[in-house]
Specification:
Elements: H1 14-19, H2 24-35, H3 40-43, E1 48-53, H4 65-78, E2 82-87, H5 104-117, E3 122-127, H6 132-143, E4 147-151, E5 158-160, E6 163-165, H7 169-179, H8 185-192, H9 207-217, H10 233-252, H11 256-259, H12 262-274, H13 280-291, H14 298-306, H15 322-327, H16 330-337, H17 354-358, E7 383-387, E8 390-396, E9 407-415, H18 418-424, E10 437-440, H19 461-465, E11 472-475, E12 487-488, E13 509-513, E14 518-521, H20 525-534, H21 545-553
Parallel strand pairs: 1-2, 1-3, 3-4, 9-10, 10-11, 11-12
Antiparallel strand pairs: 5-6, 7-8, 9-13, 13-14
Helix pairs in contact: 4-10, 5-6, 6-13, 9-12, 12-13, 12-14
Bound molecules: FE2/S2 (inorganic) cluster (FES).
Length: 579
C-alpha cells in the first residue's frame, strides 16, 4: 500500500513554511530552534515529528512515558526526522475530579490546537490511561496530519497472598468482601500495596486496554502494539519503531482520513465485542466516528454484537489479564480468529492492510484466546437497550453480569445522586431485597457532572453479608471498564434533563429483558405525564470557566459526549497564517 503513495518533497512539509523562508519570521523560527541546540542539518528539510506526551506525576499509568519519549526520538532520528517532545494534558483516571471524562474534550481541544499551531509535520500520540486515547485521537482527526498512536501498555500482573489481583476489578471485588465482613482491615491495607505493581494502565480488558486495542484495529497504531506490557523490553522497541514509522508516514502524507472509514469502524466495533471491551468504548467510538464524519447509531453496536463471539477470556468478563493476552499472541492473534467478521482490506498506519498485518499471527494459549467453537460467550460483550425508560438508549455488558438477572422484574429503590446512594444504601430500614432494582439518578454527562464511573452501584452491606453479589442496577452514569455486574448504564436522555429516569419513584416496577433488548418502567403514561409536569430542572452549576463550557456544550451519551462546537460540521479549519 505504501509503495503506491507518492512521497512528498521537503518543500511540501508544513514545517518548511516556518523554517525555510528568507524572512524575519523564518529567521526567528530557525534561531529559536537553534536555541534548543539543533544544527541546521538536524531540522532543515526533515519532517518535524511532534511527540505528544501525556506524562505527569499524577498519571501513574504513564510513569514510563519520559523514557518512552526518548525511545521514540531515537527512532525518529534514525529515520531522518526531527523530533520535538510536547507535553499535553495527562488525564489521570484515578485523580481527576469530578471525572477524567469531564476533561477528555479538553485534551481533544489541546491536541487539535497544539498540532495546528506549531511547525509539525506528523505526530506520535502517547496515551493509554482511559480517556487519553480518545482525547488525543479526537483532536488529531480534526487536523488530519499523519499521526501514529503509541499505546502505553498494561501494567504487570498483581500478586497478593498467593492470588493474582487485577487493578480495578479486584478493587471492586474485595471492597464488596470487606463490606460483607469477609476481609480484615490489615488484609485490605496490604492489598493496596500489591494491586498496581508497575507503570502501565489497568491490566484487565478495561477502558484503557479496550481503547488502545480499538485504536490498533482502526489502523492508527502499529500491529500488536496495544497488547505489549508497559514494562516489557518489547515496549521500548515498539516505541522506537513508532518513531521510525512516523517519519515515513510524514513523507507518505498518510493521514487519519486515509485510514478511517465506515469499514474500519465496523472492524473496531467487532473487535470491541470480541475482546469483551469496556462499555465506555461505545461513547468514545461514537465521538471518534462523528469527528471522522461517520454516523454510528447505537444499533450498529447491537447488530455487530449479535454476530460476534467474545473470544478474549480476560477480566472483568473472564479469568486472565493483559499479560496473559500478550503471551497468548495478543490482539493480532485474536483478530486472525475473527478475520471472517472483519474488513481485511482496510489500510493501517504501517502501510499494509489489516489482513497483511495479522496474516502470520498465532494463538499460543487456547484458554486465553478462545477458538470460535468455544467462545467465552457466543454473542458480543455489550447490548443496547431501549424502552420507555431509555428512549435514546442504554447500555449493558451481559458478559460481565449474572446471567440469572438478565431477565428480571422488580420494584425500584431510587437514589437521587451518588451522594444519596452512598449515604443511604446500607440502611436496613430501606428494606432492599435481592429482587429490588437499584436506581441512581443524576449520574449523566450534565447531572454529575462528567458522567462518572459510578454505575456499578454499591449493594447494601447486609445483602453482601448474606452472600448476594449482584443485583439489577440502573443509572445514567458510566462504569469503569474494570467493573462488572448487572448494571444498566448510559440511560439517555439523562435524568438531569428530565429524561424518564428522573420520573422513577420507589416501588415502581421495572422490567429488564436483555434478550429482547428491553428496559421498561411499568407505570401508566398518564401518571408519568403527571410526574413530568411536576419535575423541575436544577439551575446551572457554573457561571464561568471550563465548567460552564462543559455545561453549555456537552452532548448526551448516545451522541458521544462531545462538545457541539467541536464536532465535525464538514468545514475545514485552515492552517494558521505565518505573520
Ligand atoms: Fe489508568 Fe486504569 S487508572 S487505566
Amino acid at each position: 500500500m505504501s509503495d503506491s503513495r507518492p512521497r512528498r518533497k521537503p518543500e511540501d512539509l508544513r514545517s518548511h513554511r516556518f523554517f525555510a523562508p528568507d524572512t524575519q519570521r523564518g529567521f526567528s523560527h530557525r534561531s529559536r530552534h537553534k536555541q534548543l541546540g539543533f544544527n541546521d542539518d538536524e531540522f532543515m528539510g526533515k519532517p518535524v515529528i511532534a511527540i505528544l506526551n501525556t506524562w505527569n506525576e499524577f498519571i501513574s499509568c504513564h510513569a514510563h512515558f519520559r523514557q518512552r519519549a526518548e525511545e521514540i526520538k531515537r527512532g525518529v532520528w534514525q529515520a531522518g526526522g526531527s523530533p520535538v517532545e510536547v507535553p499535553v494534558l495527562g488525564l489521570s483516571e484515578t485523580f481527576m475530579k469530578p471525572t477524567s471524562m469531564s476533561y477528555r474534550n479538553l485534551l481533544a481541544m489541546e491536541t487539535e490546537e497544539v498540532l495546528r499551531a506549531h511547525p509539525i509535520d506528523a505526530a506520535v500520540l502517547m496515551g493509554g490511561c482511559d480517556k487519553t486515547t480518545p482525547g488525543l485521537l479526537m483532536g488529531a482527526l480534526m487536523v488530519d496530519i499523519p499521526v501514529l498512536f503509541m499505546p502505553g501498555g498494561p501494567m504487570m500482573r498483581g500478586s497478593w497472598r498467593g492470588e493474582e489481583v487485577a487493578s480495578g476489578t479486584d478493587l471492586w471485588k474485595y471492597w464488596a468482601e470487606r463490606g460483607a465482613g469477609c476481609l480484615s482491615c490489615d488484609a485490605w491495607n496490604d492489598l493496596e500495596d500489591h494491586i498496581a505493581p508497575s507503570p502501565g494502565h489497568c491490566m484487565t480488558m478495561g477502558t484503557a486496554s479496550t481503547m488502545t486495542s480499538i485504536t490498533e484495529v482502526l489502523g492508527l497504531a502499529l500491529s500488536g502494539s496495544s497488547s505489549i506490557p508497559a514494562v516489557h523490553s518489547a515496549h521500548s522497541r515498539m516505541a522506537a519503531r513508532c518513531g521510525k514509522r512516523i517519519v515515513e508516514m510524514a513523507w507518505e502524507d498518510l493521514k487519519p482520513s486515509d485510514l478511517l472509514s465506515e469499514r474500519s469502524f465496523h472492524n473496531a466495533i467487532t473487535t470491541d465485542m470480541a475482546i469483551g471491551g469496556s462499555t465506555n468504548a461505545i461513547v468514545h467510538l461514537i465521538a471518534l466516528a462523528r469527528r471522522a464524519g461517520i454516523d454510528l447509531p447505537l444499533e450498529r453496536f447491537d447488530e455487530i454484537a449479535a454476530r460476534t463471539p467474545v473470544l478474549a477470556n480476560l477480566k472483568p468478563s473472564g479469568a486472565y489479564v493483559m499479560g496473559d493476552f500478550y503471551d497468548a499472541g495478543g490482539l493480532p492473534a485474536l483478530l486472525q480468529r475473527i478475520q471472517d467478521l472483519l474488513h481485511l482490506d482496510c489500510p493501517t498506519a504501517a502501510g499494509i492492510t489489516l489482513g497483511e498485518a495479522i496474516r502470520d499471527a498465532e494463538v499460543f494459549n487456547e484458554d486465553v484466546i478462545r477458538p470460535l467453537d468455544n467462545p467465552l460467550t457466543s454473542e458480543g460483550g455489550t447490548a443496547i437497550l431501549r424502552g420507555n425508560l431509555a428512549p435514546e438508549g442504554a447500555v449493558i455488558k451481559p458478559a460481565a453480569a449474572d446471567p440469572r438477572l438478565l431477565t428480571h422484574r422488580g420494584p425500584a429503590v431510587v437514589f437521587e445522586s451518588l451522594a444519596d446512594i452512598r449515604a443511604r444504601i446500607h440502611d436496613p430500614a430501606l428494606g432492599i431485597t435481592p429482587n429490588h432494582v437499584i436506581v441512581m439518578q443524576s449520574g449523566g454527562p450534565l447531572g454529575a457532572p462528567g458522567m462518572p464511573e459510578s454505575g456499578m452501584l454499591p449493594l447494601p452491606n447486609y445483602l453482601l453479608e448474606q452472600g448476594v453479589r449482584d443485583m439489577v442496577r440502573l443509572s445514567d452514569a458510566r462504569m469503569s471498564g474494570t467493573s462488572y455486574g448487572t448494571c444498566v448504564l448510559h440511560i439517555a436522555p439523562e435524568s438531569h434533563l428530565g429524561g424518564p429516569l428522573a420520573l422513577v419513584q420507589d416501588g415502581d416496577m421495572i422490567e429488564l429483558n436483555v434478550a429482547e433488548r428491553r428496559l421498561h418502567l411499568d407505570v401508566e403514561e398518564e401518571e408519568l405525564a403527571r410526574r413530568r409536569e411536576q419535575w423541575t430542572a436544577l439551575p446551572p452549576r457554573f457561571s464561568r470557566g471550563y465548567g460552564k463550557l462543559f455545561e453549555d456544550e456537552v452532548t448526551q451519551a448516545h451522541e458521544g459526549c462531545d462538545f457541539r462546537f467541536l464536532e465535525n460540521d464538514g468545514s475545514s479549519t485552515p492552517d494558521p497564517e505565518i505573520h
